[in-house]
Amino acid sequence: MEWNDSEMDHPEWPRDISSYDAKQEIARQMAARLRDNDVVGVGSGSTSLLALRTLVDQARVQGWTFRAITTSLEMEIACAELGVRTSSLLNERPNWSFDGADEIDGDLNMIKGRGGAMLREKLIIASSPERYILVDASKQVEKLGLKFPIPLELVPESLQLVQAQLSERFDVHHAELRMAVGKDGPVITENRNVILDVKFADVTPELDTRLNSVPGIVGTGLFVGFHPTVISA
Prior knowledge:
Blueprint: H1 20-31, E1 38-42, H2 46-62, E2 66-70, H3 73-82, E3 85-86, E4 96-99, E5 103-104, E6 110-111, H4 118-127, E7 131-134, E8 150-154, H5 159-169, E9 172-177, E10 194-200, H6 205-212, E11 217-220, E12 222-223, E13 229-231
Parallel strand pairs: 1-2, 1-4, 2-3, 4-7, 7-13
Antiparallel strand pairs: 5-6, 6-12, 8-10, 8-11, 9-10
Helix pairs in contact: 1-2, 2-3
């Protein structure tokens, strides 16, 4: 990897980063895992962006190179701005991956997907022999689903079918199609699907299996059974 001045301009998060100092400390811990020629699964969100920037600094100091497999378009753009080569799951598997979480419980089950990239996030974490979740104290909960709804990624044509199935088969408090900001219409994921944010009466690990049996749902924001290593400040 060759570095130039333009590649050293770190991409910025478009909003203020909450708990910045804690997230920066988490990023420094994650950078210590990097080795030369690693293939790294790069998650989404502000903590993951800080970690990616810190990995780039570490690689530059050590004279190393690494490749990234990204979970979202915004992180792919960040890699391009930082001069990090990207790959894909079609070509290779990550040696390890890192990502954030919206909520994580004591059994290391998680809710992810507020950034809309949960399907690619799940593919990358499932493909990684080493999985790291970067969270500050605000993301650690006793029970999932008390703060945030469960995002469901749907094939657009299945929206009415999925809404009917949820009403008939699940105890749902509220379901809302996620709408875009800055454009008309719903959020469109990297896989050209839409997102339904659903508040369930009770969130259990078994809920993920039940949801995945509904035709039209191609991914959920419930991450169950991955047993990641948690990195926190």
